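As agreed, record minuted below.
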Amino acid sequence: MTADERVDVEIPLDRPTPARAYDWLLGGKENYAVDREFMTENLKRFPQVLDSARQNRLFLYRAVRYLVRDAGIDQFIDLGCGLPTNNNVHQVAQQFNPNVKVVYVDIDPIVLAHGRALLAEDDSTAVITADFRDPSVVLEHPDTKRLIDFSRPVAMLFLSVVHFLGDDDEVGKGPRHALRYIIDEVAPSGSYLTLSHLVVTDPVKRQMIREIGSKAGMNVQVRSPEEVDALLDGLEPVEPGLVNIDDWRPDPDQPPLNPVPPELRIYEGMSAKNPEMFEYGGVLRKP
């Protein structure tokens, strides 16, 4: 990992951030009271979010394992990677191919600080601070140029992040540009895009979630499964296709996550009782 970039971390403590809130749901310790208060309040309304977050992390393991072991991919860009936790992309991938290279991308500056500590001795992996709504910034970063060879297939990961991109986004050119530019315009045939996206089948609840996020300073736009499908046209889903990610090649023997925080255990298993909200996605190949 490069060491010449100055880290200037300004940690927002007056509002929750997606990376820190997600970290708490996964049993991590890099979160603050404002993140826990935000999640506690909203778990009362949407208790299935705990299961969704943890299922998403388990899906990451299975998807990366497939991409390295079965599809032969040896380079990854993880966009909106979040804070390091157990079974990060490079740790999973390098179990099956020690030569895999990974670029982690996140807009939250605290992710860079923690990523540097994790990757200090790993020259095959880098973490960069960038807004993936502008793919050109990601592509032009020196670490991306150092690690990723776009003459060969590459895998892009968008895990539980695209629902933070609204259709009316004012910074980038919309979710389709953020999601598709690299794989459509830069990556060669045989590249992959892996996506998980929080979906809600009830349109009233979709709008409710957007309003809750807006009040917390987050742009949250959960979509229907059909709306997610429309963002992925032209790519070839790997079996079993685009599904509830808990049903994507389930493996009861995969490594477990950190334990659920004691105060959140009442929400475990609530996704089965509230099936209108879930993480939807899969692995797709560029023909």
Notes: The two ends are 32 Å apart (CA to CA). The longest helix spans residues 48-70. Confidence is low (pLDDT under 50) at residues 1-9. The longest strand covers residues 192-200.
